[in-house]
Amino acid sequence: MKRTLRTAGLALLAAALVSLVALRVHTRRGGGRPPVTSFPPGAAARLLHVVDGDTAYFELDRGGWVKGRLAGINTPECEKVQVRLRSGRRSARCKKDDEFYGLAAYRALRKLLARGKLRLDCTRKADGSCRRGRHGRVLVTIRAAGVDVAEALARAGAAWTFTKYPSPDRARLCRAELAARRDKRGMWAAGPVPEVMAMMRARTRKWYGRHDRLCRKALRARGR
To answer: Which of 82, 85, 84 lies closest to 94, judged by CA?
Structure first.
């Protein structure tokens, strides 16, 4: 009886040690840490993973990780597949179009973020902390090798100015998007606005219905 109890005790101890080691490895890789929800302006970071055309994971040089959603723009939706990151966290990535140009927007963001050193900032609340969107993602602005990523996506015809929500950068982003339309870059190479919008979801067409009027208003306010 004593031998049985001793054996059972050793087995439980061994199992506990294995679990502890696994937990420490998981935590060291970032899997056990909650995301950072605020950080100083211009925080240095490196790319961990791109989800779609406007969402990605970043590791801050100062420590911690961020799930960021590009502020001020929106990109066409894509169908996603589930993936497991090196940290052990579950995420997703684009597999194919849901809306027209969704996969291309994802690839455009990956290419921009691979340019070089990244600097992150966020849309700030009155108290200086970072705003988060509907799904808990930090609303970020990103510079990759000195290039504003959101503006670059809009200028390449891979993103829209997200006029559904207020943004201090609306005029600048509208200007970039309208230039892409004019030059028929990215999604706008497929045809005029009504034809491109016909390949999008109903909810995208709904908010985009007021888009040009809101862009004109923002551009007038900034004197173009």
So the answer is: 82
